[in-house]
């Protein structure tokens, strides 16, 4: 049995992840990590059945000492995730990170730390297989159609923009796309932000609306043609098989992997 701890268990993703781990035949949910007092067990929160008597901790070191998790799944927010990932690696717990919003410097530091300690870690901007395929197909298309704009669309409670998926898509495309600025060389924004974020000359546009879950379109323009690659997560169940896959996969790893496209 893989011993799993979850940070962010009360959240939209966290509650689903709790059920996923509780139901999984090869996993045991041994702890939850929170930053405030929410009761002694997950059952005390009122969000889960009484049978979910999983202890809750506010201190990672104490959680590790008492419950000895193999894996920490983090589904919190961009303010805490770097600290959680670093602490987990330092304490010999393999991180599986769904939370987005890392800087390049943080990713580089955590990659070096995991390699130094020979501890597996996965940082996955998106756990949904359809989203991974969207990114892979977009990378392929960019070899032939280098004029690209990304439109990512999410619910209005999302803290980071652009989304982790939008950034990862742009990074994957940049690996193969000829470097170029897009649009007219003399274009001028008459309202700041009108052209979106600039990644290597590509534009990323972030839409935030109630009712949305997680959606992205990658648009490729060519002479007389438009290719659109689109993925929609219609509910958070779309991410759960990816989380279960990562929890199992990270047990075999000794380095940090950024992006599920590298291990599927
Ligand atoms: N990789 C993927 O496939 C996916 C990634 N995500 C990412 O996962 C993260 C969570 O998303 P979502 O569930 O929608 O967000 P929510 O805001 O619904 O959930 C986050 C939860 O974490 C709690 N939290 C905040 N800080 C801490 C902390 N230090 N320790 C423990 N818990 C904490 C929050 O509590 P409180 O509200 O009290 O602050 C909240 O309950 C986001 O970064 C999102 O981008 C989302 C979907 C898919
Ligand atoms: O906050 C979300 O909801 C999501 N976050 C991830 C991201 O930033 O790409 C993954 C998915 O898009 C949902």
UniProtKB/TrEMBL annotation:
Q: Where in the cell is it found?
A: Cytoplasm
Instruction: Enumerate the catalysed reactions.
Output: (S)-2,3,4,5-tetrahydrodipicolinate + NAD(+) + H2O = (2S,4S)-4-hydroxy-2,3,4,5-tetrahydrodipicolinate + NADH + H(+); (S)-2,3,4,5-tetrahydrodipicolinate + NADP(+) + H2O = (2S,4S)-4-hydroxy-2,3,4,5-tetrahydrodipicolinate + NADPH + H(+)
Residues bound to NAD(+) are 8-13, 34, 98-100, 124-127
| Sequence intervals crossing the membrane | none
Task: Please state every residue range assigned to the domain named Dihydrodipicolinate reductase C-terminal.
Answer: 130-263
- Please give the pathway this protein is involved in: Amino-acid biosynthesis; L-lysine biosynthesis via DAP pathway; (S)-tetrahydrodipicolinate from L-aspartate: step 4/4
Keyword field: Amino-acid biosynthesis, Cytoplasm, Diaminopimelate biosynthesis, Lysine biosynthesis, NAD, NADP, Oxidoreductase
At which positions is NADP(+) bound? Answer: 36
Q: Catalytic positions?
A: 154, 158
The role this protein plays is:
Catalyzes the conversion of 4-hydroxy-tetrahydrodipicolinate (HTPA) to tetrahydrodipicolinate.
Return the protein name.
Answer: 4-hydroxy-tetrahydrodipicolinate reductase
| Gene encoding the protein | dapB
